[in-house]
Amino acid sequence: MAVPVPVLENFSLLRGLPAETLSRLGERMTERTYARREVVIKKDESAHALCFLIEGRLQGVDFTVDGREVGLYFVDPGDYFGELSVIDGRPRPEFVIAVARSRVASLPRADARTLMFSTPGIAEGVTTRLAERLRLVSAHRTLLALPNPAQRVCAQLILMSMKAADGRS
């Protein structure tokens, strides 16, 4: 089932693309609904598509060696996910699970790569997002290196207040 242009216009990554481009993308995309707690993407799975969340909420998660689930990030409506594996072709680095009933549109990997590598605005959006995630992971690693929980909490609160002051929440 094709994804209509008005739906595609809600995706931050695709904003500004001409209607004819969105129409072609929509024809190549498929849509699927996921129940709450259903796995949308499995860790170590091959990348078949760049995904966009139409409605609902998703969470990227991984598991510790002792089996505890660790939340990595949330995906809200209008956002995209799965770009890392689409770019490098390597297996997915985490699970993506539906936190609520969710509708997801998927663009096949070949089409997503063509879009990413032939459209400077899309390339900039994806690379900026990857840079933000890398900075976040680096900041988390720094926090985890602090010797005690109280220091980690204080450092996290400082980071949160700095983000709020910058308007990045």
What would you note in describing this structure?
- This protein has 169 residues and is an alpha+beta fold.
- It has a domain at 5-118: Jelly Rolls.
- The protein is 43% helix and 24% strand.
- The strands form 2 sheets. A 4-stranded antiparallel beta sheet has the order 1-8-3-6.
- The N and C termini lie far apart (36 Å).
List keywords for this structure.
169 residues, alpha+beta, Jelly Rolls, 4-stranded antiparallel sheet, 43% helix
Short précis:
The protein has helices spanning 5-8, 19-28, 83-88, 109-118, 120-144, 149-166, and strands spanning 30-34, 39-41, 49-55, 58-63, 69-75, 80-81, 95-98, 102-108. With 169 residues, it is of the alpha+beta class.
Main β sheet profile: 4 strands, antiparallel
Order the strands across the largest sheet as they lie in space.
Answer: 1-8-3-6
- Going by helix content, strand content and strand pairing, the class is alpha+beta
CATH architecture of the domain at 5-118: Sandwich
The N- to C-terminal Cα distance equals 36 Å
Global outline: globular
Superfamily (CATH H level) name of the domain at 5-118: Jelly Rolls
Number of strands: 8
What is the string of helix and strand elements? Answer: HHEEEEEEHEEHHH
Mean pLDDT across all amino acids: 89
CATH class of the domain at 5-118: Mainly Beta
- CATH fold label of the domain at 5-118: Jelly Rolls
Spans of at least 5 consecutive residues with low confidence: none
| Radius of gyration, in angstroms, nearest whole number | 17 Å
What level of helicity do the residues show? 40-55%
Strand residue content: 15-25%
Tally the helices. 6
